[in-house]
C-alpha cells in the first residue's frame, strides 16, 4: 500500500471537492477584484467612503507613530545641537583668549609708545640737551640717594649739569667718568634745591630727607601760606637749574613749610636728559656752601 502523500486526488471524493472549491473561490475572488478595479477606474469616488473609514481606523496608529518619530527627531536634534554648540563654545573661548593676548600686547605697545614719546619730549624743547641716557641703577638701602647714568665725559657730561625726566627734575651730576656718571638725586640728604610755588612767587628750599621725600622749607618764616597739593618748580636761583621745571607736590603741612613728593620719581624713570648748566658764569663766580660741600665730596671720592 502506497503512502498517503503519494495518492492522487482522484482516489478521494473529499479531496476532489476541496480542490474544486478552491478553484471556484479563487475565480470568484479574481472576478470581484476585476469588477472593483474596473469600478475604481470608471467611478473613483465610489470607494471614498471605504477609504475614509479605513483612514479613521488607522489614524490613531499613524498619529502615535508620528508622535514617536517627532520625539525621536527632537531628541537627536537636541543631542546634535548640544554637540555643535559645545564645539562653537570651545572655538569662541579660544578666540576670547587670543583676543585677551592681543589686548595685552596692544597695551604693552601703547605703554612703549608713551615712553618713546616722553623720550622725544626730552629732545623737542627749547633746550638742547647734552645727551639723553638711561638710568642704569640707583641706591636703595642707604640714606644717600644716588643714581647712575650710562653716559659720561665721552658724551659731554660734566659735573653740576642738571638731570631731568619728561616729568621734572631728577637731580644733578655729581661725578663723571668716561662712559658713566653718578647723579645726586633730589631726595638725597645733602641735596638742596631753590624752588618757588608755581602759582605765585613764594620761594623756598627743597631739601632731601633720604627717604624718598622732600622737605619744603620756606625762606620767609611767619604764617605758612602753603596748602596740600601746591606744585613747586625750580626758581632759577643758584644758576644750575633753569626756572620753571617741575620739582614736587606738597603732601603735608609743617610749621616752616611742608613735606612734598617728587613729581619725577627716579624709580619710575627709564630715560633722562642731561641739560647744560643754566648760568655757568654765576655758578663759577659764586658757589653756595652746599655746592662747595658737594665739590669737596666729589674730590674726596
TrEMBL record:
Presence of keyword Coiled coil: yes
Positions in coiled-coil regions: 89-126
Superkingdom, taxonomy of origin: Bacteria
Transmembrane segments: 20-42
InterPro entries found in the cross-reference section: Cell/Rod_1, Cell/Rod_MreC_2, MreC, MreC_beta-barrel_core
Annotated Gene Ontology cellular component terms: plasma membrane
One Pfam family it belongs to: MreC
Domain Rod shape-determining protein MreC beta-barrel core: 136-266
Gene3D superfamilies: Rod shape-determining protein MreC, domain 1, Rod shape-determining protein MreC, domain 2
GO biological process: regulation of cell shape
Keyword list, A-Z: Cell shape, Coiled coil, Membrane, Transmembrane, Transmembrane helix
Family the UniProt entry places it in: Belongs to the MreC family.
Name of the protein: Cell shape-determining protein MreC
Amino acid at each position: 500500500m502506497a503512502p498517503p502523500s503519494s495518492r492522487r486526488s482522484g482516489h478521494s471524493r473529499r479531496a476532489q471537492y476541496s480542490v474544486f472549491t478552491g478553484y471556484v473561490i479563487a475565480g470568484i475572488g479574481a472576478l470581484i477584484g476585476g469588477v472593483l478595479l474596473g469600478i475604481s477606474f470608471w467611478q473613483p469616488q465610489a470607494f471614498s467612503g471605504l477609504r475614509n473609514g479605513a483612514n479613521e481606523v488607522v489614524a490613531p496608529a499613524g498619529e502615535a507613530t508620528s508622535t514617536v518619530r517627532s520625539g525621536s527627531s527632537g531628541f537627536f536634534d537636541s543631542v546634535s545641537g548640544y554637540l555643535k554648540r559645545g564645539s562653537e563654545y570651545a572655538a569662541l573661548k579660544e578666540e576670547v583668549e587670543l583676543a585677551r593676548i592681543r589686548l595685552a600686547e596692544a597695551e604693552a605697545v601703547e605703554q612703549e609708545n608713551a615712553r618713546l614719546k616722553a623720550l622725544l619730549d626730552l629732545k623737542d624743547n627749547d633746550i638742547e640737551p647734552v645727551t639723553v641716557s638711561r638710568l642704569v641703577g640707583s641706591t636703595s638701602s642707604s640714606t644717600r640717594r644716588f643714581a647712575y647714568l650710562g653716559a659720561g665725559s665721552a658724551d659731554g657730561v660734566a659735573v653740576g649739569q642738571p638731570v631731568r625726566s619728561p616729568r621734572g627734575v631728577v637731580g644733578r651730576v655729581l661725578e663723571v667718568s668716561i662712559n658713566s656718571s653718578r647723579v645726586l638725586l633730589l631726595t638725597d640728604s645733602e641735596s638742596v634745591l631753590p624752588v618757588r610755588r608755581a602759582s605765585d612767587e613764594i620761594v623756598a628750599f627743597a631739601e632731601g630727607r633720604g627717604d624718598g621725600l622732600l622737605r619744603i622749607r620756606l625762606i620767609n618764616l611767619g604764617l605758612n601760606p602753603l596748602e596740600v597739593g601746591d606744585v613747586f618748580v625750580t626758581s632759577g636761583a643758584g644758576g644750575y637749574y633753569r626756572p620753571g621745571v617741575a620739582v614736587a607736590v606738597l603732601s603735608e603741612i609743617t610749621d616752616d613749610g611742608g613735606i612734598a613728593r617728587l613729581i619725577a620719581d627716579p624709580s619710575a624713570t627709564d630715560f633722562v636728559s642731561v641739560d647744560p648748566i643754566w648760568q655757568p658764569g654765576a655758578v663759577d663766580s659764586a658757589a653756595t656752601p652746599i655746592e662747595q660741600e658737594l665739590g669737596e665730596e666729589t674730590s674726596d671720592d
